[in-house]
Amino acid sequence: MYQRALLFSALWTAVQAQQAGTLTAENHPPLTWQQCTAGGSCTEQTGSVVLDANWRWLHSVQGSQNCYTGNTWDAGLCPDNVACATNCALDGADYRGTYGVTTSGNALTLQFATGANIGSRLYLLADDETYQTFNLLNSEFTFDVDASRLPCGLNGAVYFVAMDADGGSGRYPENRAGARYGTGYCDSQCPRDIKFINGEANAEGWTPSTNNRNTGVGGRGSCCPEMDIWEANSISTAYTPHPCESNTQTICEGDNCGGTYSATRYAGTCDPDGCDFNPTRMGNDSFYGPGSLVDSTAPVTVVTQFLTADGTSTGALSDIRRFYVQNGRVIANAESNVAGVSGNSITTEFCNAQKSVFANDNVFEQKGGLQAMGEGLTDMVLTLSLWDDYYASMMWLDSVYPEGADRNSPGAVRGTCEPGVGEPQRVEAQFGSATVTYSNIKFGPIGSTFQAPA
């Protein structure tokens, strides 16, 4: 997955050794979800969401001077990583006014652009100081989504990452912000645009982006397993597991991080590509989209099941299955129509065949495949986001990719968007009012959150 090239707002984050500011009150928008039992009985849970630290105002501890402006660190406050962490405080967020984030009951709506802010990333909280965690093995995760207003180039993403439940404040006690302020992010790209990692700033070696006035790449990255439940706009959708060599958040250095932000993509400890199931890429161009079998112009229920070999929550992950529910119909995931690749779910056989036929490096298997992915699924944090892509204009999701690839090459076509139409400058100028709504989140044992077909 070539994601996480998020366009952050001009005022960014900190993770560890980061002070908590008090100039803006931090009030988490409430969001309910449901915990279900094997009998299909579901109980409402009282939760809330918190904005990722990378979007927040970072200012001097003793005042309101910006520690980071545009895509540049303040040299006086941040002469090095340790001093920056001591001098700077992460402040509260105006969720609706600054970031276009609203909740109502069990529904979360994200607006793409609000004033100068672009995109957002949020996490589900169990309480004001702790992320809600999930063991996905032998379980299913279900939610409703309305992606009808997301054009080419945008990505409304629901996914899990193996972040620390406290935002890292336990392992790095100098972190005074913690999960309350959305700290501790990591994913399979080992992102190097994170402002603070493991107790220190990421200012040393920071290179401002040449095509993005708000972002840059630092000397360090933050890695962990990632399970993409839903990456989609109104044109294309995909779900993708990304295993790593370590099942917890780890730090990496420079290009050894690999992933989107490094010169050597496969140098790191995680699989940045994953094993994706995009119906269009698998030869089903009429399965998902406007007016398709799964009609993206209307809300849809998305069900993802994580089956284990022995049917227990401690067993080896063997299969990741997908169902959709729309207009009272249960729709099984598309079958692969690619010669040499069979199936409609993510299994070891499917992934190995896909990598071979598409002539892709099988980094998924090199990093442990489904076995390793399953080991990383036992303590995951739910992430909900909306973003655009300054690295590849989201062509890996909804167009022909890699750029310039022959459309007839197996796996090259991922959607019907013309190459380049999703460029961030165009999307931000024309579709700032785009929104995505996630609602009716349910979690429980296999078969507990929806009525499966007989």
What does this structure look like?
This protein is mostly beta strands and 454 residues long. The protein contains seven helices and 31 strands.
Record the SSE blueprint.
Blueprint: E1 19-20, E2 30-36, E3 42-51, E4 58-60, E5 68-69, E6 72-73, H1 81-87, E7 88-90, H2 95-99, E8 101-104, E9 107-111, E10 113-114, E11 117-118, E12 120-127, E13 130-131, E14 133-134, E15 139-146, E16 154-161, E17 196-197, E18 200-201, E19 207-208, E20 216-217, E21 220-223, E22 226-232, E23 237-242, E24 250-253, E25 288-289, E26 294-295, E27 300-308, E28 317-326, E29 329-332, H3 348-357, H4 363-366, H5 369-376, E30 380-388, H6 395-398, H7 424-430, E31 435-445
Features:
single chain, mainly beta, 1,4-Beta-D-Glucan Cellobiohydrolase I, Chain A, Glyco_hydro_7_sf, 7 helices, three-stranded mixed sheet, carbohydrate metabolism, 16-stranded mixed sheet, glycosidase, glycoprotein, 454 residues
